[in-house]
Structure formats: structure tokens, C-alpha cells
Write a structure and sequence with these properties.
Two copies of one chain form a homodimer.
Chain A lengths: L4 E7 L4 E7 L4 E7 L7 H18 L6 E7 L3 E2 L4 E3 L9 E2 L1 H9 L3 E4 L1 H12 L8 E6 L3 E7 L2 E2 L32 H4 L1 H14 L16 H9 L3 H25 L3 E5 L7 H12 L11 E4 L4 H13 L5
Parallel strand pairs in A: 1-4, 4-8, 9-12, 12-13
Antiparallel strand pairs in A: 1-2, 2-3, 5-6, 6-7, 9-10, 10-11
Helix pairs in contact in A: 1-2, 3-9, 5-7, 6-7, 7-8
């Protein structure tokens, strides 16, 4: 008989969430551990095991588990390793898949966090039934997962889908953590939006409730709350960010002609305030054949659920 | 027994080339007709039939032919139509596949010309054995064919791979025939290179043999011939065009992480004069994980052969 459960693990720079998932996508039990508190990878694996063991016992023991799927920053599907992840405690190449297999005695499949979110959307979210879509994750960084003909795109080396590091400003572009200038991530990530807020506040004379906040700590949530109250500066921040995202999306459409682009993360929840400038930016920059035809959709999954569910879907692959 | 031959047709704005191809990729007979001389599509189909009939008879008649593959500007694999092709005599949507089927009584598969070239490279050229690569066709326009996991990318609607219309200059970009500004095509196409030549000649005081030519008619061949003789202006034209192509390629790499980018068309034959600035532009704009790792290769197929061979490969699909 097919084993009825999988384990999904969503590793992030600040926290790692995990859960047991059934074939219908129900999360039967979940927990979390703080990623940076384990500077030794083996201690991290041991902590994961201790966190998961009671959940595994609850569903009838390890014999009931088909496999483990894990989404991790810089996770590589082909090698099952994390490779040179700037925001994790472990340096160089970490053989994450093998360490999990050894500890849990279960098959383990690794991918990056944005790819896991894409699988989550395709299996349980707004991209259900779609064969061609792109997910853009707007968080501390900007990640992406690309689905073509129903399959995740991993590329020749397993690192495909780094759309946060495509260049959206070639002149006077902002310096990115990757060393390049003008990357999409420097504008559309949480820190990018905060940076835009600071720039607009400093260069405009418009009154704004955002001026009362610590200018170094403005979040996209602050901007959202000001914008829905009609704050002009806040609206301008969304306008700028949305248009720029739309411009970037136009080039992504020219590449893979997706049915939809799905937005995941806090910024995506700002409704028309962000969606309208995105759609305008997109339509003003795509070829006529695509104008008005590409859906831009906010994710409808709870952020934590999507990542666990997406990662867990890899668990069914049961790659040994 | 499997039928031993296919027909490959390469439709271009000025001429259409066709041939009979065997399973090993030998072109057994070929011919051509001038595309613009048939303002009625049915006359064009009839002329193709007349041109191909003696070749078909020579290999033993239509019973020996498995199918027809055709690469055409704006050709859509899903609908087997040409749709709104700006450089062809027929307007709107032309049901090319059905017209060919009706005339030849053979299955016919349509794709765009760059996709056909990609299939040609994958089957018989420098991309043999590669599962992930991108072909960029540098001609009157700039086209592209994207191969991921061994399959051509058609996208949701069949129009994927319009990389010539990604935006490479967002400020003061050149006006493109598509209506957008700053498209890669406005810089890297034959007319784009000629335009760069005119701009550099007009703004520089450097001596150049190019100054003796009609400034409106300079071709990339003229530029090549001047450059190999050491002409500084000609070298600067290649430097500018190559760097800009490399910048564009960096974003393509972030999308699909290909093993190689294959260049097809006249400009690709300029050797290190164009290849070096392309590689520099690429390496200066990709994430560190890809620096120095992505191959940039000139096509090694004869231009006319590649397109016929690529189109013919679709003939084996024998889609009814």
C-alpha cells in the first residue's frame, strides 16, 4: 500500500517550519525551530528530528511516511544540497538531502524555497490546473519559481529562476547584496520598498503619516496602512514599485508566455494599490499579442502553509 | 514500415526555402520561391507544391513522406497558424498548417523560424545532446528559441521566446517596429547594428573606412571587414553590440540557467570580435554562480540548412 503521509519542511533564514501532510494537502501537525540558533548543521538536523518525531509518532510512525520534501534558500534539486546561501548559518555546500536521509531513514528531496512555493500554488493554490505560470516571492529577497508545461524549471545546473537578480535599472541602479547593480530585488523586496519609501520621503515635500515613523524601519505593511487611508506618498511608493514589477514581468512574459504570474508574500496582499500599477507596467511593456491577456494573481494560500505544502509535494517523489 | 523522408520548409520574409530530408539529416533535394510574390496565400501554397512535387517524385512519391515541418515568422505551434506577421504578405491569421495538409495530403506542423533553428541545432548542430540551451537568431530581426529539459518552450499560447523584444534600454531606448522602446532587436538586429554604426560614425571623429560607405546601407558584413583590418570604429561597433547582447543574456541565464547560448546568423560569424564583448557583458552581469560557466557558441550549421533541417525535424512528429 502507498504510504499515506509526507513531511514538508520550509527552511528560512530566521525560522524553519515543518509539518506532516496527507495526500489531500491537509497539514496534520506542524512545528518550527529557529534556524540561526544551530551554527552546526548536524545540530540543526537533530533539532528537526526532535521536533518532527512526536508528529511522526502521532500518524503511526515512520513506516507511514513516504518521504521528505524541503524548500531551502539556494537549495539545489539536482544535488540535494544547499550551496553558498548568504542568509544561512552554514557556509559552502551543505549536503542537506543526505543528512536528512541518514537521520530520518527516509528519501529526501531538496529545492529552493520559491520553487517549493510554486509547487504549493500549483498543487493547492491559485495556479491549480495551470501548466505555465511564474511565481514571484516578495519577501526579504525576491525569489521566483517558473513552471513550464507543468514542470518546475531547474535549468542545466539546478539554479534556474533567479528573477530577483534580473536587471531592471541599468543606469544608476541600486547596489544589490549579490554584488550587481539594479537587480529587481533591490526595488521589490521588503528592504527595497523601505528604501523607496525613504527616497520618496526625502525628495518630496508632500505631507505623509509615514514621516512620523522611523525612516529606517518602514515596512510594506506601514506603507499599506498609510495608503488605504489615502496617504499620497504611500500611494506613490506602491505606484513606483508596482510599475517597476510590471516592467520586469513584461520581459518574463516574452520568455515563457505564462498564463499567469502569481505574487506571494506581504506586498502581494495590498490589493489594487499594488496590482493596478503592476498590470499597467506590464501592459505598457509587453508585445501587443499579450496586452491585457496575462493574469497577475495574489497567492491565496497562507504563507506558512504554502511553503510547507509545496515542500511536502516533493516528498511524494520519493527520490532515493 | 516507417516512412523514410520528411519535408522541411523555411519561410522567410524575402524567400522560402524547402527540402526533402532523410532520417540522418541529409537534405536530398532543395529549392526556393520568393515569398512576397504571392499576395494570395493559396497561390503561395500552390507554388510550394509545384516546387516540391519533382523532389517528392524523385524519392518515390508522397507515400514515402512522413510529414511536413515548417518554420515561419509568427508561426504558432499550437494553432498551426501564422498570426499577425508584420513582414509577410498575408494579414491576420493564416491557417498555414491546414492549407498545407489540404494541398499535400500530409500532416503538417508549424512553428516559428527561431524555434525551427533551435530544433536544427539540437538535432544536427552545436547543441547536439544539450537539454537546456537558448538560440538567438541575429538577422533582420532578433528571434529566439528556448529549450528546457530537451523540449522547445511554447508557453501558454504558443508565442514564448520573444527575447528580441525584451527591454535592454529603459532610458532613451530606440523605437522598435513592435511599438515598444529599447527592445534588444533595435540594437542587435542587422538594422540595429547599422544604426549603431551611423550613430558612432556621426558622433566620433575617429578615421574609419566605414565613412566611405553609404551610411544608410552599412551591414554587419561591412563592419566585420573593416574590423578585421583594424578599423577602430568598426571594433567599437562590435564592442557596443556585444556588450549589450551579453547584458541581455545575463537576464536570460537568470531565467532558465542554460548550458549554452547559441548564436545564429551573420553577426555570429564575426568570431572573437563579437564573442569577446558578449562574454564580457555576460560575465559582468550574471550572478557569481554562473560567471565564466555559460557557453556562448556560434552555430556551426549553414544558415539555410539549419532552418530547413530544423523545420523538417517537426515533420517527424506527424501531428494529424
Amino acid at each position: 500500500m502507498e504510504k499515506p503521509y509526507v513531511i514538508g519542511i520550509d527552511m528560512g533564514g530566521t525560522g524553519t517550519k515543518f509539518g506532516i501532510v496527507d495526500t489531500k494537502g491537509n497539514i496534520l501537525g506542524q512545528g518550527s525551530i529557529p534556524t540561526p540558533e544551530y551554527p552546526e548543521i548536524q545540530d540543526y538536523i537533530d533539532a528537526l528530528y526532535e521536533g518532527l518525531l512526536p508528529l511522526i509518532e502521532e500518524v503511526g510512525g515512520v513506516s507511514q511516511i513516504k518521504g521528505i520534501g524541503i524548500g531551502a534558500p539556494n537549495g539545489n534539486y539536482y544535488t540535494s544540497s544547499i550551496e553558498f546561501a548568504p542568509n544561512l548559518p552554514w557556509k559552502g555546500v551543505v549536503p542537506l538531502g543526505n543528512l536528512l536521509k541518514a537521520k530520518f531513514q527516509l528519501p529526501a528531496v531538496v529545492t529552493n524555497d520559491a520553487n517549493a512555493a510554486a509547487i504549493g500554488e500549483m498543487t493547492y493554490g491559485v495556479a491549480r490546473g495551470m501548466k505555465n505560470f511564474i511565481i514571484i516571492t516578495l519577501g526579504t529577497g525576491v525569489g521566483s519559481g517558473i513552471v513550464i508545461n507543468g514542470d518546475l524549471v531547474y535549468g542545466h545546473d539546478g539554479f534556474a529562476g533567479e528573477l530577483g537578480h534580473t536587471t531592471i535599472r541599468r543606469t544608476n541602479g541600486r547596489l544589490c547584496g549579490c554584488g550587481k547593480k539594479g537587480c529587481l530585488e533591490t526595488y521589490a523586496s521588503a528592504t527595497g520598498v523601505a528604501r523607496t519609501a525613504r527616497e520618496i520621503i526625502e525628495t518630496s515635500k508632500e505631507d505623509s503619516t509615514l514621516r512620523s515613523l522611523d525612516i529606517e524601519k518602514i515596512t510594506s505593511k506601514d506603507v499599506y496602512e498609510a495608503a488605504i487611508k489615502g496617504d499620497k506618498v504611500a500611494k506613490e511608493i506602491f505606484q513606483f514599485t508596482g510599475n517597476l514589477l510590471g516592467e520586469a514581468f513584461a520581459d518574463f512574459v516574452a520568455f515563457s508566455a505564462p498564463e499567469a504570474i502569481v505574487l506571494f508574500g506581504g506586498l502581494a496582499q495590498a490589493g489594487d494599490l499594488i496590482m493596478k500599477p503592476i498590470k499597467d507596467g506590464l501592459d505598457n511593456n509587453v508585445l501587443p499579442i499579450w496586452r491585457g491577456k496575462i493574469k497577475v494573481l495574489p497567492s491565496n494560500l497562507k504563507a506558512s502553509d504554502a511553503a510547507i505544502l509545496g515542500a511536502s509535494a516533493l516528498g511524494w517523489e520519493g527520490k532515493e
